[in-house]
Amino acid sequence: MNTTAKNTITALCCFLPWFGGCQNRDVNGEAENKTEGIISEVIETYAEIVYLAYSDSLHKARAMTESVEAFVKEPSEEKLQAARQSWIDARLPYLQTEVFRFYGGPIDDADGPEGLLNAWPMDEAYVDYVKEAPEAGIINNPQRYPEINSQTLAEWNEKDGEENVSTGYHAIEFLLWGQDFRADGPGDRPHTDYSTKTNAERRKKYLLAANALLLEKLEDLVAEWEPGKDNYRRTFEEADPLESLEKILTGMTLLSGFELAGERLLVAYESQAQEDEHSCFSDTTHNDCIYDLIGIQNVWQGRYEKVEGKVFTGLGIREAAILKAPEKTKAIDELLARSMDRAKAIPAPFDQAILGDDESTARKGILTLVENLEDISENFAGVGFAFGFKVPTEVDE
């Protein structure tokens, strides 16, 4: 081999490793840029879904308030049934917003309204009469609680005990249905509680004030997520993308595992007590489970169906997850589908499904759903780990 050829080969041998290294750096850089771009789109999609879901919640809460006002103005059984249906309708979009909790956002930061909107379980006797105490509650104690309005209800909420719930969806639920003593249906508070019964006028005032407070707090949440404003949404979208991604996954992880599987299903499964189900007065706990799951799916898939039927689509968490954790992404897809099937299969009313022995079809189905939700939570946490951060699976209390 001549000297020229030898020198050429030597130069190529020195050059090729460097060239390969450049290629790897280029490929890695392109992949990193692609991932960052997808995460940014995921965050924008999430923010829009939050805004749409809270907007729908407000829209349906306003419809409920109109129905309640019509009932209070002229109490009748027909108008009471209409008000009850409007409450059920108003719950469906709000349940889909619960996946936006647990990371200190507008709903549950230090000043967040979550406790005023959806606190439970509640001691019914704190609000109104119960079977064992016909003169119980704020409504029946004008000496201690002389003025009933939105401000006083907020001040009294969870005062002297976390079950002293005076506001929110479940207080309104109790005021519309009353206690549930039936195995085959919900509570059956008579419409005459708002016309001829003792303290009917105070009961009317309470129901109207509770609705007004609900609207006020939902309006605040919509404002915090409205696009193009100097609000929480802008801060969320302009923050470090991984920080916002961590918050999104935290909400999904804690709702699926800690809250839904644990607090709402497993506690009631183990106690077999009606008081431990989420919507015990209206017998709509099955909706709570289904629509919480829909909320998780919305964020995962980047899709939201508005109450009037129009569908918004964008990039969901799934599109980011599949880049870093494809196996966990596949597992979550399968678990979410199975969990939805299980949730829809739980027979209503839920307070009857939790009864019986552990081999009953309903109880086995509930326990399987709990296990699936716990697995979903662990896989969400695994996705977070793949992106380099630790997502909690339990709430520090």
Report what the structure shows:
The protein is mainly α and 397 residues long. Helix content is 63%, strand content 2%. Strands 1-2 form a two-stranded antiparallel ribbon. A hairpin with a 5-residue loop joins strand 1 (303-305) and strand 2 (311-313). The model is unreliable at 1-20 (pLDDT under 50).
- Count of all domains: 1
Measured by DSSP, the beta-strand proportion falls in: under 5%
CATH class: Mainly Alpha
Helix fraction bin: 55-70%
**Largest beta sheet: what is the strand line-up?**
1-2
Number of helices: 13
Number of E-state strands = 2
The best one-word shape is globular
Structural class: mainly alpha
Radius of gyration: 26 Å
Mean pLDDT figure: 93
Oligomer: single chain
CATH topology: A middle domain of Talin 1
The CATH homologous superfamily: M75 peptidase, HXXE motif
List the uncertain runs: 1-20
CATH architecture: Up-down Bundle
Terminal Cα separation, in Å? Answer: 78 Å
Q: Main β-sheet, in a few words?
A: 2 strands, antiparallel
Following the backbone from N to C, one meets helices and strands in this order, namely: HHHHHHHHHEEHHHH
Keywords:
397 residues, mainly alpha, globular, disordered N terminus
